[in-house]
Amino acid sequence: MQKPERLRALADALARQNVMRLRDAATLLGVSEMTVRRDIAASPGQFTYLGGYIVSANDVPNSGSAGYSLEQEKDHFAQAKAEASGFAAELVANHETLFIDCGTTLTTLARLIPNDWHVTVVCYSLNVAEILRRKANVRMILLGGVYMPSSDSFSGEDGIDVLHRMGINKAFISAGGVDEARGVTCWNFHEVAVKQAAMASAVERHLVVDTSKMGVVKAVRFSQIDDFDSIITEKGQEKRQRQ
Known about the structure:
Elements: H1 3-17, E1 19-21, H2 22-29, H3 33-41, E2 47-50, E3 53-56, H4 70-73, H5 78-89, E4 97-100, H6 107-112, E5 120-123, H7 126-132, E6 139-142, E7 146-148, E8 153-155, H8 157-165, E9 168-173, E10 177-179, E11 183-186, H9 189-201, E12 202-208, E13 220-223, E14 230-233, E15 236-239
Parallel strand pairs: 4-5, 4-9, 5-6, 9-12, 12-14
Antiparallel strand pairs: 1-3, 2-3, 7-8, 10-11, 11-13, 14-15
Helix pairs in contact: 2-3, 8-9
């Protein structure tokens, strides 16, 4: 496969899944990881390589923001986030397997799981894990990997593999931005593969955000709005027809 063909194939793959790991791109194209790196470096207007992931350059808007910080975010719209999590908690049933995403929005959801319920919860952030570990009947699966201080979470391929092998009843996904045209976005590239793997393994997918996130675009897109069964905010649950 010649370079122009590789670039077209990579662009087509990113149009379908938004983000690719370097090794997956090399396998797809039938070349070495170094060749993929060279192709990307020679096409800065088309692709970007960040943190082990390849994304379309169009999905990395130029922004003056300093980035995401868990400490800064935890008090932003705290009441709205708690209310959104409260509506999400109404969907949880005993004996289910759940995925709870990282960030500050879904900590209330973790707290609202009844102490006498027997549920399995998959998570990858310490702030959620710290809440769940105090619930004696919750079986917690904490995905490991490299610790990412900005979001108090972990990133690693082993965790992705675990998610691909699991059956999840409901995945509760957080986001930094929700836009009809640009899709659902987050700050951190390392979160993308985890979110997508959890969504792929889930029977139901629920996006949980406060309304300040609507119409906002952050650094990297991980899904479209139509990939969710519902959007849950402090105003309640909006059911959708998943595509």
